[in-house]
Amino acid sequence: MSNIEKYNQIFVETFEVDESILENYKYQDTPSWDSVGHMTMIAALEETFNIMLETDDIIEFSSWQEGKNILKKYAVEI
């Protein structure tokens, strides 16, 4: 499975959304992306890509697109 497939799968499973909406998906676009959902997603990303996100990056992770940019800092190419 490619990194983009893994990344998308985390969003689809965590927030129970269709993959087709991910490109424009942002924090609180659905009720499931709340603070608990956010930390669930962060934990899944850290485990999947074997990284440890810094606190500032966790806070700034506000959309599917922004997440891709943040993961680049950790050498995760999406």
From TrEMBL:
Q: Which domain of life is it from?
A: Bacteria
Q: Which Gene3D superfamilies does this one have?
A: ACP-like
Cross-referenced InterPro entries, in alphabetical order?
ACP-like_sf
| Identification of the protein by name | Acyl carrier protein
